[in-house]
Amino acid sequence: MAKNTKSVAAKTDPRLSERDFERIARALAEPRRVDILKAIGSKDTPTPCAALLEVQKVSPATMSHHLKELETACLIDVVRDGRCVNLSLRRDVLQAYLDRLAKI
Amino acid sequence: MAKNTKSVAAKTDPRLSERDFERIARALAEPRRVDILKAIGSKDTPTPCAALLEVQKVSPATMSHHLKELETACLIDVVRDGRCVNLSLRRDVLQAYLDRLAKI
DNA sequence: CACATAGTTCGATGGTTATCATAATATCGA
DNA sequence: TCGATATTATGATAACCATCGAACTATGTG
Question: Strand D: which residues 48-67 of A lie within 7 A (CB)?
Answer without folding.
Answer: 48-50, 53, 60-61, 63-64, 67
